[in-house]
Amino acid sequence: MGDAVLGLVADELGSAAPPWLAVRNVSDPEIDATGIDLHQQAALAAAIYRAFGRWSSECSAIVCWALIAAL
Q: Domain map of the chain by residue range?
């Protein structure tokens, strides 16, 4: 997770750190894995991604462009 490392480094630099932000793609869903094995978890994640992955990527792209436009 590069964005997490960037945050840690920026925190260590304090006021010398450049302004930054991270936009995460939400296409990898969090799954309640209670009662299902790893294979079932993977199948569920794949089904969710097939149904919504494109839209989550498009939303992330729109957010990125909005942030760039706001600079």
A: 2-69
